[in-house]
Amino acid sequence: MLKDKGSGLALVGGGHAHLFVLEAMAQGRLRIPHTVLISPSRWQYYSGMLPGLMAGHYRVEQCRIDLEQLATRAGVRFIEQAVVSLDAEVQSLCLSGGGHLKYALASLDVGSETELGDLVGFQGRLIGVKPLDKFHADWLSFKDTLQRRGYGQLVVAGAGAAGVELAMAAAYALAAPGHGARVTLVASEHGVLPGFASGVRKAVMRELTGLGVEIYTGGAAAQGNLIQVGRSTELHCDALIAATGAKAPYWLRSSALRLDSEGFIEVDANHRSLSHPNLFAVGDIASRPGSPLMRSGVHSVRAGPVLAHNLGVLMNGGRLQPFHPRAWVLYLISCGARRAVASWGPFAFAGDWVWRWKDRIDRGFIARFSSGGENSALL
């Protein structure tokens, strides 16, 4: 239990787990005076619906949560700025507007940035996956360019779950009349969906092939505005989507927090910093030594209620609750059209019914943290 409560709680970022903290406050289950939510945008776009947004199945307003509105319901002050530095020793945050904010307790759920690796220096049109609102604007601009030209080549680098979803969404969207575009997916030497069961990989490969997505293996490197695959293949590239993995925000390096070798915040089973016990970290920004915890929105969602409980414990007393990630996690992979592949451990299922299942889950998530009924009707 913290002694200094005067500065209150700083929620940095509007990620999945922090939504549950705000919900608990709005419902009166969690009370922490002087709480602030800091985010560079009032809109939190739900990454699970991004492929559907690209494919044209959703409107943009159906895929986002109004953080300012949620904070108001929770009795929390909302600050629409980014955190640009953190000093854990003096418990202070520096904001993009130039101000500083002291805290007694902090929780970070800001996500990660894209690790470009050998794609650094790409000289063509790079459509960055994050932040999601900018990604959507860049994607619409690229589609408009293709429609005017009538042809083009899109390369998606990275063949994890995010990369294959984006490649299939793009192929579906660009198959419409007036879009004479080719979509190419470049995987590492480990192939498509490394780490997933063979049945899942086969099902997704069938979906990719059915949409006409070309697949290359061997990793991607930028050569001007070309993409080099392995030693012998060069791909012309009108636009590049990099889904090549996560890197930690640069400003964490000077934070005095204990970080792992890649710069992510090391936390214990309660998602509490190993070096500064008045700070929690969840989602992509966190690293649990000795744990197989993957950077996945699924884990962040399940960690949310645990985080809300533990923040209350530190302010008001009680026993911390560890977060136990499940050995098998349900992944629902969008496949461009209203189809999806479900992955549950070694099991795989595919079809339009899986997409309808995913659609209900995604819409329910948005509706849970939103007011009004704008997200209720299918297009």
UniProtKB/TrEMBL annotation:
Transmembrane residue ranges: none
Cofactor(s) annotated in UniProt: FAD
Signal peptide segment: none
Key words of the record: FAD, Flavoprotein, Oxidoreductase
Domain FAD/NAD(P)-binding as annotated: residue spans: 10-289
NCBIfam families given in the database record: Nterm_to_SelD (TIGR03169)
Protein name: Pyridine nucleotide-disulfide oxidoreductase
Organism: Marinobacterium zhoushanense
